[in-house]
Amino acid sequence: MCLFEMGFEEKAIKLQVKEEKACETKKICLHAFTDLTYVAPIVFLYLLKECYVHGNLKATKKFRALQQEVHQVLCNSPQPGPATFVAYCLYILPIFGSYCEGFSHLIVSAFHRFLKTAATTGDSLEAKIIAVRLFLDIVEGSIDHDERIAVKILEVFDIKLTDIEKVASQSKAKNDRRFHNVKAFLEQYIFGFIESESYMTAVNLLEHFSIRQSGESFLVKMIEKKQFRAAEQWATFMGKPMLSMLVQEYVDRNKLKNAYLIVKKNNLRQEFPDVHHKYKESALKKLAEKACWDVAEAKANGDRQLVDYLVYLAMEAGYLEKVDELCNRYSLEGFPKAQEHEAIFLQHCFLNLNELGVEDIIWVDELNGLGKATCHIEGSKVVGLDCEWKPNYVKGSKPNKVSIMQIASDKKVFILDLIKLYNDVPDVLDNCLTHILRSPRILKLGYNFHCDVKQLAQSYGDLECFKCYNMLLDIQNMFKDPRGGLSGLAEKILGAGLNKTRRNSNWEQRPLSQNQLEYAALDAAVLIQIFYRVCDHSHTADALDGHNKIEWKSYIVSHMDNPRKSRKESRLRKEPEPEVKDNEA
Length: 585
Prior knowledge:
InterPro entries: 3'-5'_exonuclease_dom, Exonuclease_MUT-7-like, RNaseH-like_sf, RNaseH_sf. Residues 562-585 are annotated as: Disordered. By secondary structure, the chain is of the alpha/beta class. The chain contains 25 helices and nine strands.
């Protein structure tokens, strides 16, 4: 029998799908069930399956389209009523094998949506009886449905313990003694989920049937298995004493954020007065470890206790300039004057410019300075590159423009004020950096520099200099598993790390502080010393990173966007590579 003889009108829904720049039209075959008076659930499910199988969209889009169609179907008078029709469908679905679980979720979700708009189904009592029998058959194992479907059946048909007891009593009247004690039977069923660590299902069932027998041990089990959502739902259902136990467990396990959110949501601050500050202090510490000092200060929101803690974090990190800044801003007393001790602290803990042989830091923000810097750099065989920009903490917003670019030679570090140079002499800046970045005579060292190049190109898109580069060696790529970033690599190779406390400072402020200048210079200068040390060790038995010899030349890369090069650039590319000796220092 063809579909149209059964009262089905075939239709196609066209969905426009944009894939890159092309717009492709795809179709999914659906049927408008205009009259379901004589359509059995088994026929309906078969057609639903055919629609799904022959649709050529991705599974998620097919699911949503069919969900909408089923919702409309339930409005077209399925017999003996929409609720009963859905109950029978759920009874039949297990025979559809691998399609059972997905279609069950589809039909239940469509029915749930239908119930929100329908005043009454007219068949809810009959449907509930069928749904109870279905649930009991699932519990017994005679009907194979996923545990989540069992829970959804209870919810969507609003099945209570009394409903199950009523159906069970009718079964006992027919000498069916499967359910001597319904509550005990259900508890045993739920205990099976607890044993199999399906905690969310167990909690949903316990809450649905208002069973409160499980206690603290159940809560601890869920926490130990990291089932925090289930634990929180269970504790909320059980009430304030269990919520208090949950908070204490979180505190004992140092899960301060979880504890704080429970205290805040359930108004338990009086019972746990210290959780708020402990969580805030933990959040400040994480921000300080990421050098997000401005964000940390904003999170402190002027709270004296939190600001004091932030000062101690700054002292611990060696960011003593920040200590004085916070003390002055909030009129804090009792802290030592930090600037007097900073030089000794940094010299003891971190690399400094003197150790790296840097004799001068030169700030470049005007034409003459840019020319002199370019001449010096073009006379160098190896330079270190880095750049900095002001962090943007607004989620989803674009990063700020790159503010400065550091170029280090053996003895000097030039810090280019890109913002000012771009505004004042963009053409000269473009020309100078093009000569440096594309020169085959200069080996340029970076660390994760492809990210910096990408940011530079986004910041100054109309400059050609950042679109191509030649003879770039990314130090990061020479090591299999570089941990701790550039600072960790420096500590591994040079014996001391870098002080990274200022990496997220305001790089757009002018003038930059001396500490900022030194931080920026170190990031570029250390690359040269790491490179020289790698070259020195590449011929020894104790070569770095487990290699007998690090062939650094194989890591050199070039990137030329435009295949149509000028003759001048073609001649440059034919020039010989710089002769950097492996033991040159």
